[in-house]
Every structure is written in C-alpha cells, then in structure tokens.
Amino acid sequence: xxxxxxxxxxxxxxxxxxxxxxxxxxxxxxxxxxxxxxxxxxxxxxxxxxxxxxxxxxxxxxxxxxxxxxxxxxxxxxxxxxxxxxxxxxxxxxxxxxxxxxxxxxxxxxxxxxxxxxxxxxxxxxxxxxxxxxxxxxxxxxxxxxxxxxxxxxxxxxxxxxxxxxxxxxxxxxxxxxxxxxxxxxxxxxxxxxxxxxxxxxxxxxxxxxxxxxxxxxxxxxxxxxxxxxxxxxxxxxxxxxxxxxxxxxxxxxxxxxxxxxxxxxxxxxxxxxxxxxxxxxxxxxxxxxxxxxxxxxxxxxxxxxxxxxxxxxxxxxxxxxxxxxxxxxxxxxxxxxxxxxxxxxxxxxxxxxxxxxxxxxxxxxxxxxx
Length: 371
Prior knowledge:
By secondary structure, the protein is of the alpha+beta class. It is about 30% helix and about 20% strand. The protein has helices at about 35-40, 65-80, 80-85, 120-125, 135-150, 155-160, 170-175, 175-185, 215-225, 235-245, 250, 275-280, 300-315; strands spanning about 1-5, 50-55, 55-60, 90-95, 110-115, 115-120, 185-190, 200, 265, 290-295, 320, 325, 330-340, 345-350, 365-370.
C-alpha cells in the first residue's frame, strides 16, 4: 500500500490561436462555433468514433470505443448533482491517448479546452490498476467547473483575444466567475493589468492543487463539495460553492461516502477489506469499486467513531447499520449501506491503534461501491 499524497486532476485551458486585429462581426455568445474556434476551442476533428453517454456526446481518436470505459463514465456522471450540470454542460467528452505537451499536461488525469473535456489513458488507469467510480466522478466534477469558467469569459477579455492583444485564454484572468470566487475566498490580485492577474491567497486553499490559483481552487472546491468532502475544505470555500450551486453542502453530498477531515486517500493493488463478508452481505453485485482512507491518528476512539460513521451516512440518505465484528487483530466495524437508486456501499473500519505493537498507528476506512 502506498500513500496518495496528491491527486492531480486537471490543468488550465490550452493556448488559443489569436486572430489579427479586426472589426468583429461575430456574436460574443460562447456557444458560437466560429467564436470558439477563434478562441482556440474548435470542435475536435480527429474523430474515429462517436457515442452518447447519459445524453452527452463522447468522441474519440483511439482505435475503438472501450465499452468498459464508457460504462464507467456513465456511472461517474450519475454521481454529479444536477445543480452542477446546470451550470456547466460540456459540448463533448473527447477520448484521446494522451495530452499535448506531455511533460506538463500529460501528467494530468484529464484536461479541458474551452467547452470540451478531454479524457486520456491515465484518466482510466491513474495508478496502474484502474480508477474508481468515485474518483472519476471527482475528476469530471473538477473539469465541469473549468467548462463553466470558460463559458463566463468577460466580453472585454474575449475582445482582447480577438484583437491579438492576448495570445492565450486563461479563465483565471478573464472569467468574472473566477474573480467572484477569488474575492470570496481570500485571493487577491496584485496586478494592475486587467488581463494578466497576479494572484495571492491569504489563507488555505481547498487542496494543495487548488493553491496553484483561484481557477484551480474553485474547481477543487466544487469537486470536493459535490463528492461529499466539504468538511475537508475551508468554510468560506464551501459557502461560495453552496451559493453558486444554490444548494446546501448536505444536499449536494446526498448518497456519497463520509470521510473524516484530515484523512489521506491511499491506493493499493491488494484488497484491504473483508471480501468474504462483502460477498455474503451483497450477493449479485457485478461491479465493485474500492477506495481507502487513512484517518488521522488523533481522531476519536473507535467506540465513538463507529457510530459516528453510521450517523453521517444515514444523514446523507443511506440506509444501513455499522456493526463491530469481534476479531483478534484490531477493533473492526463493517456494514452495507444502500441509497435510493440501488447503489450499495460496503463500509469497513479497522482501528489499528488498538491492535498492539507493530501495527499501523492510524485507522483505515474502506468504502466499496457496488452496483
């Protein structure tokens, strides 16, 4: 098992091709295909195949459409609350092998160009043994925010690109939505140039990746809140997301796992849950996705933590019970929780702090999503 220190989710929009200065007889509606092309976001043209997933267009330049990947994208989209989809509907998902400029963008799990979200090989296999429904949904949520940022570029900024005064589109400089978020969450702009911000954050970002700038901080904040992890990020970030999406963090987290703040996601090629008990409790599940978290060593004792996990999941609309299992190695809790759409979660807690010398000094929380 190795610790997942950071989860790189996305990078900023790609460079655009600037038009020479001219009179612009074009609408500044960012759904206009001609304008999008002038901003460097022409429709993807190396299309080998096309499919529809949850009503959204998916195209690819790979040799064929992988049905397993399309199915995973579909169930990940099911995890995105409608409030976010209302704010940002991508023109297309684009499946490509890798990103351009491999030394930089190529390390991302996905990236966005204008209204299009690009999925690369690493999107579906970030650590060598596939990705989970939960993590792919978090990636998609992050990228949807970048789409919303692009679609709120200010007219003056668009005009500067079309006139050739700017040769790169960056919503961190040109989106009023990003500036609204920045103003509410402690970011300040030290630049006097309206088209080239110099951002500084007075306070913590939502994640280490969010500290890169307000556009990434906003995308990380939204992704964390809609995936049920609002308790991980600063309150002012959560409050802004709630206002933007016109929904409470609790409502947006409905049906999602609950993970204590200060936890660290870990990845493992080995199964870290009681597989035999899961099969007995949840027969017939054809898909099984596991995510694991090391909890803070200072978290409450398992006698309180076990019931707290059950209470938190119940408050999110999941039904089930979390029961302590008598084992010799460590205090161990497990249970099956079900939500209204039939998706189930097998949940396990191992509190290794009480397992004796030589054991890990932190509890491990596992969620296995079943459908």
